[in-house]
Amino acid sequence: MNAQELLDKIKELPNKPVDVPTAPPVELVAMVVRWGRHLKQWKATTLADFARVSLSTIERVERGEKVSEKALDRIAQALGYESGAFTKPRLPIGPERAAEQLAETYGYLEPVTVAPMKTHKAIREAAKCDAYLIHRPDVPETYDNDIANLGEWLDLASFILSDIVEDPSPTERGRRDLYNDILKCVAELERRGLTVLSGVMQAPQPGLPDWKVAIVSVTPRLTDPGAAKRRHVMVDRRCVALPGKRSPT
């Protein structure tokens, strides 16, 4: 069953009494698990290993079949949700409203090609963008200063390579030194257990058709073991829209 079939099935579910708390329907859980795994670009075996359940359990959940609450709690936590997200009774919102919420959550996502931020080319492409977005899901606050430091280096590189400075063409050695300093910052984040990926997102704005945003993804290896092999990240188009402007849909 693919995502569209699951969505159609959710819409067809009978409305339950709105005053009786019930657990999320298995069809809804199936869609959330499948989409969550897709967004992380995890294989079913990766999710199974990380959730400490069998591969057949993951396959049953994604087919909309019932499994134990313990297994569902483990899967929820592996995907970044709280324990009970797939099992705790709550007041139903109705299948149509559930489908609307899923569309609101996932309908603005756009894939962006990324690679490990380990080359001068990656730094140069990020610095030449009009803006950058650092995405850091589940990264503890203890890394705040290190990530802020990376942002400051990117600001400096962007400024030096822009047309704002009087001499927009630093020497080749000067550029190499700057790129190496940024790569040292990235290497320190990697040494401390994070994965750093980067890519460029075409994000045209009203009156700015060539607007580009550098996407920097920072994730902990402990909670996202497959990140190093990731080739795309999903970015919400609304996150790269300029204040007061609305990105084309």
TrEMBL record:
Matching entries from PROSITE patterns are given as: HTH_CROC1
Per UniProt, residues of the HTH cro/C1-type domain are 37-86
Q: Which superkingdom?
A: Bacteria
| Stored Gene3D superfamilies | lambda repressor-like DNA-binding domains
Name of the featured protein: Multiprotein-bridging factor 1 family protein
